[in-house]
């Protein structure tokens, strides 16, 4: 069994996995099925990460950090902006050049968000929050992420493109949030769309 991990370690591991996906996506081109499939996986991983941050990272930022509300509001706004790009990427009829442009935009925005968290916010968190609290939040964040659809291995048969599986007219971003938060509670953890 893995030893307990603190919140910064758990979120940094997500960032590492997301950065790996971005790098893999950048070497692919056009609208080939593998590229679209990896983009679906990127959207799932990014939304799963965002839900964990909104549940366990931003609340402690608001509570403990100087100007915490300002920092958390900015980060939530960046999540909302990214998910708008993801929703546009989900469209199955997107021409290849438009898809490439949106994908680059998503990757640039996500990398900027990750660098800001790692270089500015994580050090503040370590300064203002006790190691015990960070450990407890890390374990909670890990269980919050569990259960979302995971990433397959290259040897596994390719599943159908996830954004093309329409369920009740709901797109991939909402489906991942529904899966993790429960139907109708998809945005209840964020400050941008309170219940
Ligand atoms: Fe993050």
UniProtKB/TrEMBL annotation:
This is Hemerythrin domain-containing protein. It comes from Actinoallomurus acaciae. It comes from the Bacteria. Residues 7-125 form the Hemerythrin-like domain. Residues 140-161 are annotated as: Disordered. Pfam families: Hemerythrin (PF01814). Gene3D superfamilies: nmb1532 protein domain like.
């Amino acid at each position: 069994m893995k030893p307990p991990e603190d919140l910064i370690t758990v979120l940094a591991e997500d960032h590492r996995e997301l950065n790996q996906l971005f790098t893999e996506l950048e070497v692919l081109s056009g609208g080939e099925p593998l590229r679209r499939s990896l983009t679906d996986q990127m959207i799932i991983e990014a939304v799963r990460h965002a839900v964990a941050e909104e549940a366990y990272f931003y609340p402690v930022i608001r509570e403990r950090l100087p100007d915490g509300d300002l920092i958390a509001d900015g980060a939530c706004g960046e999540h909302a902006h990214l998910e708008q790009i993801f929703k546009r990427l989900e469209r199955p009829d997107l021409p290849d050049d438009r898809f490439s442009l949106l994908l680059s935009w998503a990757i640039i925005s996500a990398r900027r968000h990750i660098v800001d968290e790692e270089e500015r916010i994580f050090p503040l968190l370590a300064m203002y929050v006790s190691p015990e609290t960070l450990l407890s939040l890390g374990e909670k964040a890990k269980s919050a992420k569990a259960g979302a659809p995971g990433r397959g291995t290259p040897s596994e048969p390719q599943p159908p493109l996830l954004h093309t599986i329409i369920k009740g007219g709901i797109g991939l971003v909402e489906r991942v949030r529904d899966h993790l938060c429960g139907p109708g509670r998809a945005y209840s953890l964020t400050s941008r769309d309170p219940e």
